[in-house]
Each structure stands twice: as structure tokens, then as C-alpha cells.
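WARN retry 2 of 3 for item q-0093 after timeout on previous attempt; input resubmitted unchanged.
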Amino acid sequence: MPWTELKTRRWPAFDKELDGISKETMEDHFKLYEGYAKKANECRKILKEFDYSEIEGNQVYSPLRAVSVDYTFALLGFKNHDLYFGHLGGDGGDPNGRFAEVIEDEYPGGIEMWQQAIRKAASAARGWVMVGYDLNDGSIFNYIMDTQNLWAVYNMCPILALDVYEHAYTRDYGATRLGSRQPAATPGRGGTPGRPAGAGGGEGSGPSLNRLAAFAGLPARRSDRPRTGPAGGSLSGLFEFR
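OK item q-0093 returned
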């Protein structure tokens, strides 16, 4: 197994004052991301060292089963956070380009209806929501994942990752997941009620997508890595988030 060591990245969002997500939350979250990388690497080392001619494969319990299953939890914990942190730190705004065109075709209410759908998916999920592009039929769907490695779908290309585990928002907003909640008061950090210190945007500008992420909405920042589907069409136009 030609694995290399997984390494975390300090995404640009970590050096910015995000609208709706504090630096304290980001730093705490980064430690979790580091932990997933560490454990995934440990699992890889163990899996490489197994003597597969001798090791037991048992569906009730066996070291092979235990490490293989927990490896997927650690690995997708790493990959999901890689996607999530990469989205944060943009200018906010509605999706546009080819992605917006697909949404307009698939949802009767267009982008506004899709935004409502992803918020409801985030409220229903226990861990993650992945907005995914199905490489077989070209559809867009908000996939609910209760844990990192549960209900990931084959041949689906993640476009946007939304972390709805409590650690992603509790420090800033408290433990209750409500779409209308306001930031929790944090002594000594400054700012005004309902708007965390360092939040961008002027009066009346409305919430950015960074804040909507903390409200179980949408992360921001576009990812425009080109991908190609089975029919040979480029998917790069789908990844235009601002």
C-alpha cells in the first residue's frame, strides 16, 4: 500500500477574521483535524504491518476489522475537514455559474429553495452535510452523513462540505442548534450582541456565507478544481462559490 503521510494544512481562513466563526473556534477545530490526520496515519502503519496470510478476518471482532473500520472514520474526518476549511474565508454571496444553473433546473424554487433545503438537511444531520454531484446522472443532492464514514455515496463528487457537529459552533453560539440563534456572549472578546468581534460587512449588509455556516447554512469560498465526469464533460463550472 503506497501511502504517504497525511498532513494538515493551514488554510487561508485560519489567518482571517471570519464573519460568524471565531478564531478560538477555528483553532480548537484545527486540533481535531490534526487528531484525525494522526490517527489515520497510525492506522495506515498498522495495516501495512499486518501479515495478511496469517491475520484473522472475523466479522464479529478481529484486529483487521477494527483497524479497517476506524481507519475510514479517521481518514474521512481528515478529508471532510480539508474540504470544510477550504471553503471558508470568501466574500459570501449566492452560488453562481454552472452550479447555479443546475440548481435552478433541479429545484422548483431555484437557489432560494436549495438554500432552504441545505439548512433543513443541516438541522436533520448529526455530523455532516455534503453537497454532492452524482457522476452517473449529473444530479446535485444534499447528502446527510451522521458520522464521517457513514452514508458516503460512491461516484459522488463533494462540492461543498458542512460540518454540523457541535464542536463547529458551540463556543460561539451555544449548544442549541437553531437557525435563528444569535452568537453567544463571550466575556473579554469584545464585539456587540448578535455580532461577534471581527465580523466583516457593514450595517445592513446581511450575513455572509461564513456566518451562515455557523447557523447550519453554507460555508463560503469557491473550490474550482476541474473534474471530469464519465461523459467527458468538465465539472469545473460547478465549483463557483464566492
